[in-house]
Structure formats: C-alpha cells, structure tokens
Amino acid sequence: MKRRILLIGVILFIGLNLMLIYIDDNGKVNRVSYINEWVSSFEADMVEQMDAIGVLSAQTEEHVYFDKSLGSFEEFLVNEGDDVAIGDPLYAYRVHDYYETETKLISEMEKVKEEISSIELAINDMQMYQIPTIPADPTSNFNITEDHFELQVELPDSTKEAEVLRQQYLVDLEKELAQKNAEVLYIESQLETLRANSDMITVGSPYEGKIQDLSVSLEDPVLTIQSEELNVTGELTEDQHKKVKTGFKANVTLNEEEMHGTVSDISHSPKAIDVNKESIYSFQVSLNDEVDQTNIYPGYHTDVSIILEESIGTTVLKDSAVFMDSIWKMSEDGKLTKQIVETGLSMDNLIEITNGIEMGEMVAQNPDKQFRNGAKFITPLKIKQLTWDSLGLDKSNWKKYLVTGLISR
C-alpha cells in the first residue's frame, strides 16, 4: 500500500512540474538547454551545378558553293580529309563571260566590305555600352542596328552575368568580322586569277579547317569544311532548359581530365515535338582558348557540369546547425539566443549564410525542441580534451581553486 502511495506521489509530483512548465508563459520557471556540440562558421566556395552528357563536335561547319551560271567546273584541287588554310585553292572553273563575272565579283566584294564596316561599328557600340549597375528590366535591353547588320542584346538580371554576356557577344562579333575579312580575300583571289588567266578562276578557301565532304556530282554545297576547333554539343530536358543561359560557365570532363568552357548557344526549338514525350533541346559549350585540343576528336563523349550559380569565399555552416532559416548561438550575457539568418546555396551538407552570422562564429549543432531563447545552457565536459596546460591553473594552488569553487556554489 505504501509503495502504491509513493508511486502515485512521484507521478503527481512529476506531472505537476511538467504542467507548471507548460503553462509558464511569463518564463518564471528556469529552463536549461542542453547543447551537445558547438560548430563554427567557416569560409568555402559554394557551387550549384547541373550535370549533362555531351559529345565533342566541330565548332563550325562551313559550306562552299559553285555558281553554275558563272562557268563550267574544271576540277577539285583538294581531297576529303585534307587540311586547308584560308586562301588555299579548292577548285577551278572556266568562266562563260569575263566581264560579267568580273562585275559580279566586284559587286560581291563591295557588299562584304559594307558588312565589315557595320560589324566594326557594332563592336565599337558594344565596347562603349555601359552595363547598368541596377538589376536589368526590359527597358535596359538594347538593339545595335547598322546597315546590313542588326543585333538584339537581352541583358540578364545580374550585372556580372550581363558582363559575361557582353563579352560573349564581342567574341561572336570578332569571329564574324574575321570571317567577312576572309570572304574579301576569297573574292580578291578569284579576281586575281580571272585577270591573270582571262577565262579560268581558281577558287581559294574562305575558311580554315578540314575537308569533311566533297560533292563529285557538283550538287551544292560542293565542299564542306569543318573547323579544327572543337566544342561540346549536349541535350537539355525541359526543366534544365529553363535554368540554363548562354554565358554560363561549364566544366567538361573527358578521360578524367577537366576542361573549362562557356555555354555559347542554346536551341529554343526542340529536336522533335510530341505530346506524349518530353521535349529535348540542344546546347553547345565553347572550350576556352587555353584548352589543349590535341589528341581529342569529334565524337568523343564527355560529362558536362554547367555552373548555374556560385559563391566564392562565402560564409557557410553545416546544415545540421541550421533549422528553418535560424541558428542558435551564445549571447553576450552567456545565454542561448535564436538568430534568424538568410541562406543561399546548399551543397554537400553545407549551407551558405548570406546574412546573420560572421565568419568563425560558434553556433549550436543539431537544434532541438528543448532549446529556448534566452535560456541558460549546459554542454558536456569532454575530459579527454582537458589538460592542465589548457586549464591554465597553477598546479600548486589547485586545492585553493577547488575550495573556492565549492564555497561559491
């Protein structure tokens, strides 16, 4: 009987205390939080990336045509697989009318030179354009319009991304300018051979690369020239297509060797349209100039990681220390305090903290329901980590310190 009374008394005592704690809205009952471990924030590079499969392909594939109205084809001066430089002879033909051919070639050259002037002005406009320091809106996009040339530039929200995109446009314009200059040399070489031989023209190559295809039937294009420079072609799903933009950095891995590049083109038309299948879009990555492209060839398969967003040298915490965008740390008066933080990228069990904590600050790991704002806290004593040197005590007076501690309690 006594044991039953004792048991009931213990249960009532515990239950009453729990009830008092539960209804203690004014915080009159002292609460103590138990913190098993503290961790500190530290510096790390955070990257959000998207993986895809790619294949190496020629950066450009150019076609050469033969205008049968100008004359009769004589012969090819190259074979499939030959490497050609700009100006190297490709084929020869005999003209029907000297003066008509000369007039047409001169007209074509003047047209190309006008296009060159327009591209040069567009490059100058792009170089002079100042990117807004505030987030872009539709009104900050702009058009470059010159005679024979028009370029619409859509600026992204980020100033950094806008600068990357501007540099990409400049690279593309420089390539187009180089191509037009090559076309001028191509036409000039035809004029020279025409004037030297009266009725025979040798057509020089307007491109540098490898002869990929040669049409013996003289069906246009009579020649296809692939560039020696390679890029990576891959595919994106619908969800991936929404996230990727031109100008994004990309890392390409081939045989465990990593190469760096930039997303240079994204198709906005799917390969096929089918109600019952997911749409697939192609993209291209241009490899950086410093990439060694020897001993790698079109057709080699690669892994591609596209960098969607990155924060270099940012403040991070283990994800076990962050709960619902908040952390727990020690206040100046030695109590537990809840701190709301702003988070960014997540990667490998780490979370970027963009606001609310300083580098190297200590926070409680594994936030628990028993954590209370403003509560006192206790942590486990880790005996193995203690030494007399770490305590910094005078060994001869340790008894004095012990007695002082007991009395103060």
UniProtKB/TrEMBL annotation:
Predominant localisation class: other
InterPro entries hit by this protein: UPF0194_transport
Localization annotation: Cell envelope
Bilayer-spanning residue ranges: 5-23
Superkingdom field: Bacteria
One of the record's GO cellular component terms: cell envelope
Keywords for the protein's UniProt record, in alphabetical order: Coiled coil, Membrane, Transmembrane, Transmembrane helix
Protein name in the entry: Efflux RND transporter periplasmic adaptor subunit
Species name: Oceanobacillus halophilus
